[in-house]
Amino acid sequence: MATSRGTGARTRPVLLVGTRKGAFVLTGDPARRRWQLSAPHFLGHIVNHAVLDPRDRRTLLVAARAGHLGPTVFGSTDRGKRWREARRPPAFPKAREGEPGLVVQHVFWLAPGHAREPGVWYAGTSPPGLFRSADGGETWDGVLGFNANPLRAPWVGDPQAAPPDGATLHSINIDPRDPQHLYIGVSCGGVFETTDGGARWRPLNQGCAADFLPQPNPEYGHDVHCLRIAPAAPDVLYQQNHCGIYRIARPADRWTRIGENMPRSVGDIGFPLAVHPREPQTAWVFPMDGGTVWPRVSPGGKPAVYGTRNGGRTWRRLAQGLPPRDAWLTVKRQALSADARDPVGLYFGTTSGEVWASVDEGERWRRIAEHLPHIYSVEAADL
Amino acid sequence: MSAVFIPAPLRSYTGGRSRVTAGGATVAAVLAELDRQYAGIRFRMIDEQDAIRPHIKIFVNQEQARRLDAPVAAGDEVIILTALSGG
């Protein structure tokens, strides 16, 4: 029987879905069988990320922009009934006269801060910048240890070599034992770590391939697609990279390519990755075709989630209920999410506007929403 | 004081009004006054480097203002337009 560990018996499962044309909320019954789709929030806005604060389960932040209007953050403290725009959204400092300055194009990733720091949030942007709010998303300041770091420009690389939607700072992971200890991912740039709250950063990319760079073992410049810390053992991290799936157990400094253990016919390319909330050896990916010109769709048109229960030594195909063929699905880096229930619910959203759910850790899948706009993000939460 | 035309995507800031008034001798001053009246509206049109965002066009009467220091005289009409292509 499904339970709601650590969330209280009366909470309801919700999925916050960010799309190219607005945000939607799917609310489930306690068994997660029936889901109700909300009306759109911010219809017409590009919503890269919508996140519920797990510390109060009331505060929602949404990273939004419209095609013609600049990027901003909207917040609600009543679960989405009323919204208020950030008084000072993430923005780079004004450059000195005659010098080029950076302009935030998207607020791409939102991350609630540490449990001991209520009101603290982090945001990652495109072009890559890290921002922090100490007042629940009302005002944002740049984390200067990264944004103003003299090494930032070489770390984040040439804008001409950036991914198609622009280079982004994403995958902001906070060590649940220490609010000063953060990991971030930059595409392209790699994984970076701070242990002093963001004053100093160092690359953490050894062992990761970067086959698009001329150097054999660069210190940075890698294309991390999604980085996740294991909540139950925060020394363990996983990443889905442009060049494979990796795992690291700190204090080791070297990543191991656990994607080598995926079936050769499927490969280990993809964008999203999720980690079990209680079992640090369990993680899931959604492989996509990284051959030829990088189609980035389910290999062979046969979508599947792959899961490991042993830290990546072996992987199992989890496709029951998904279309067996002729389904060319793409799932973006923020669009695969695990809830905290038992058994864990897994959810993914596709660029073709479908949301799929499994309430048994990936064994069986069911489509719970369709006809939505292009999905950027899916976040499982409890209201 | 100038009349300012607000396009539909920005009317969430003006309570749905398409025409408002704001004073100022330059486009920058008019937008600053607009932002005092309707907090947050300026940043959606003007980036942090004080450049007009790519899909925003500002006209003073019939003439496009490409810079924020473009002059505005009392009685001029400031027209803000949004232009977006693609699906």
Order of helices and strands of chain B: EEHHEEE
CATH C-level name of chain A: Mainly Beta
Q: Would you list the SSEs of chain A in sequence order as H and E?
A: EEEEEEEEEEEHHEEEEEEEEEEEEEEEEE
> Could you tell me the number of beta strands of chain B?
5
| Strand content bin of chain B | 25-35%
Characterize the overall form of chain A: globular
Overall domain count of chain A = 1
The portion of residues forming beta strands of chain A comes to: 35-45%
List the helices and strands and how they pair.
The complex is a heterodimer of chains A (383) and B (87).
Chain A: E1 13-19, E2 22-28, E3 35-37, E4 46-52, E5 60-65, E6 72-76, E7 84-85, E8 106-112, E9 121-126, E10 129-133, E11 141-142, H1 144-147, H2 152-156, E12 168-174, E13 182-187, E14 190-194, E15 202-203, E16 224-229, E17 236-241, E18 244-249, E19 256-257, E20 270-275, E21 283-287, E22 305-308, E23 316-318, E24 336-338, E25 346-349, E26 355-358, E27 366-369, E28 375-382
Antiparallel strand pairs in A: 1-2, 1-28, 2-3, 4-5, 5-6, 6-7, 8-9, 9-10, 10-11, 12-13, 13-14, 14-15, 16-17, 17-18, 18-19, 20-21, 21-22, 22-23, 24-25, 25-26, 26-27
Chain B: E1 2-5, E2 19-22, H1 27-37, H2 41-45, E3 56-60, E4 63-65, E5 77-82
Parallel strand pairs in B: 1-5
Antiparallel strand pairs in B: 1-2, 3-4, 3-5
